[in-house]
Amino acid sequence: MSVHVSTPAKRPTGEILFALVFVSVGAAGLLTAGSIPIPPSETGIGPRAFPYIVCSMLVLVGTGIVAQVLRGKVGQAEESEDLDAAAKTDWVALAKLVGFVVLHIFLIEPAGWPVAAAVLFSGAAWSLEAKPLWKAVIISVVLALVLQYVFGGLLGVSLPPGPLLEGVPFFNG
Amino acid sequence: MLLEGFSTALQPVYLLYALGGVFVGTAVGVLPGIGPAMTVALLMPITYALDPAAALIVFAGIYYGGMYGGSTTSILLNTPGESSSIVTALEGNKMAKAGRGAAALATAAIGSFIAGTIATVLLSFLAPVVAELAVGLGPVDYVALMVVAFLTVGALLGASVLRGLASLALGLFIGMIGIDDSTAQQRFTFDNPTLVDGVDMVLVAVGLFALGEALYVASKLRHGPVEVIPVSKGKNGWLSKDDWKRSWKPWLRGTFIGFPIGTVPAGGADVSTFLSYAAERKLAKGPNKAQFGKGAIEGVAGPEAANNAAAAGVLVPLLTLGIPTTATAAMMLTAFQRYQIQPGPLLFENQGALVWTLIASLYVGNLMLLVLNLPLVGLWVKILQIPRPYLYAGILVFAALGAFSVNFAAADVGILLVVGILGYFMRRYGYPVAPMVVAMILGPMFEVQLRRSLQLSQNDPSALFSSPFAVVVYVSMALIFVGSWWLRRRQAALEAAPMKDKLPV
User: What is the predicted ipTM?
Assistant: First the structure.
């Protein structure tokens, strides 16, 4: 078993940028909250007060985190069973995964859900170095068809079967 | 009333649904990296086409099954994971390594069953009483209760207070997007038609829990074979007489520690398992005490019981007040809302039949888990051994399926991806995701009650402390915070202790 060694990032630029996301969401909210229309009948605090409270909180807390990180108190990355805490972040695998989800989104309508799902599964398995690849592809096709059958056919969730499977009755609810 | 619930839940079709829910819930809960909240979120689509009673029965099964599955994972897998079962892992994992994995699983299973059953009985008696009392609560009281829920989930539970609050605030912000409940004005929609209806809770939950986790693990995936500790069969396999003798008291103590902690909005499973573990460690005597840190059965029996009892306890505020105090409860509330069921004081009057069916199916599900879990250990081990590329690819497909089937819009999968990337960075930089989920669902309710309170008092903020109930709630919150500060110091000391054993290897 590996003993946890906390390896603090050399320069916490990423962490500061992420905290600034919270600050900027809050700031944007503060700037736009003033344009929320208040109906003339309103007698209470109205629809703007709560946005102002929440957005101020975002700005304050985000700024606080930036200050903490600058003083060296960085966040503790979450642990997980399958996670190799000592490993370097594999940005390439991450980019591939995000890419395949995007591809999936654009495939659902034209190609049908099963095709899009099979592409997502085999693409993701390939990004995570599944070997051999043909096995991942076969699993993806079987999984996509089973899910289409169970959800589209049995449970009546209307997943578009796509041009390939349009005519097969048990893939449609 | 409960009998009527049973008469529904025991119909053969509904029994099948319960069995299905329990089985799928456990199977998904066993998967490493998948906690109970993510189990409920991921499995939401399977109930979309069911009638409300069937859906609630399936959810009851998934809820308990997901809790159960986690303990199997932490006992048998070499690396601990989910927080609510991490205490189980302390001793359970050691037991498994010493060849006593089956005994650890057995004490966890039986303890969960006993605790789950007792806690469900308590829930059946307590919930109607609390609901009756809750009818008298005004908006000021709700504001107080929700402030406590926000602060305990956001500031009390995580490692970093500021990061918890940031997550909370972001959840509140996303909850505001769309049409304001009180005045029907659009807020933060930027005239974008997809944002007018607000961001769907399922997208955020699945994005944060499933997609965020999958991306995070993928970024630092442990390659190579999966190490599952083999479960011995034969004479070491079952609980010995001594094991029983050492287990039954921790089971009961765990139950009575877990249930009350679950019912108050002060942390749910995490806190209760830790308290139970600390209690067992303190109460153990002689050679048993020396076993702590090396595989003491009490350290599995107690926390597991506490975990399940807390899971039932969490349902008390959820059903009677409509206030979820954990991420899993927030997911349950989302599921209820899909069926137009609004938990709250009037739930037992308006939807009595459904609620009692749900409670009855908790009993049924619990019994099924006990019967299913032990004989199926072999299957759970197989599930644990799924090659990780396939596992995480499968999670991605399921997350995408769940997101798409909310409105059958591909654009929703796009929102899922954005939230997933957010979830990735939150994990990377140590932001807890649970506060965001709870805040997103509670935020709109909180705002309605806050505005109502202030409207009644002509915008005088001191009115928020005008009701005795609210004052009691705020004072208890202060006490909880002081208590937690003390607990945190204890926990730090406890966590340091087993580390010492590991170092000189």
Answer: 0.90
